[in-house]
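Hi F.,

I've been meaning to write this up properly since the lab meeting, where we talked about keeping a consistent format for the predictions we share between groups. The idea is simple: the sequence comes first, exactly as it goes in, then the structure tokens exactly as they come out, then a line or two of notes. No screenshots and no reformatting. I'm using this chain as the first example so we have something concrete to point to.
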Amino acid sequence: MVTNDTDRLLARYFAGELTPQDRIRLEKWLAESQEHEDYFFELTSLYQNMGTGEYPPFDVQKAIEILEEHINKTSLKRVSHKRNKRKPLAWIISAAAAVAILFFIFNRKQDNPITTITEKGLYSFADSTKINLIEGEVSFSKNRTRDTIYLKGKASFEMNSKKAESKIVKAGNIYVKDIGTKFTVEANTPDSVYVSVTEGEVLFYSDSNTGINLKMSQCGYYLSKNNKFYKETMRGNFQFKGTSLSEVIRQLNTFYGQQIELKDKSFQDLPITVTFTKEDLSTILDVVAITLNLKVDHIGDGYTIE
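Output, unedited:
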């Protein structure tokens, strides 16, 4: 298991600042499991190609010497079949790798020390994940890949479709597994969790219930008292007072996450005054089209107005 204390220990190790007591702790940690050893080497492979930037100050040559000394010392303790799993020493102790390892360890604690976010706002991450914290807090698992995001409150998420399947948002004992999408999770109380999807698809489930699939423009909620999930079409509230058609379309696109196209741009300034309360997108567009004497068509995943 990798903890914050372990990361600090590794940082001191590569920077050449280990005390004799630290060295004993580190050697014991490495000997505990193959997972620890794999993590030690994974730091190099994951971050050697991160690019240039400003790194925390450290003695690279000293780090390389210590790393080489440790590899030589610990390799004598391994049985022969374990030796084959080690990376070539020249590759491990390259300056670029040493810089990358130190960058990862120090940068996690200094430049981007986020394990818990409590300040409202939009946060972007290196893997293209975006989190908009609306209220409450989000925190990340300690497994380095941030596969699990813990939510208390309300937040919107946008995931890279190629990496989304490894992402899970957890609220209490409720899970939202992303399948490349944009979605919002509201978990202000332990009694219920609400999820709305504006793009793509999510799996919405719990420890004891396989749950439901939610697709674009769908929402669902979970009630803990009966351990059940419910699905419904996303419904919005809108009040338009002399609002231009182009602005109406913009607001609907933003809320429902579907593409609405106005074919004839000469209609974009037409004003409309109407109020909608918990209506689905199809109904709203029908009313808008009838009111302005236009026609709406549902084509694929979007709509056209002409």
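Notes:
The chain has nine helices and 17 strands.
Confidence is low (pLDDT under 50) at residues 44-60, 76-97, 107-114.

If this format works for you, I'll send the rest the same way.

G.
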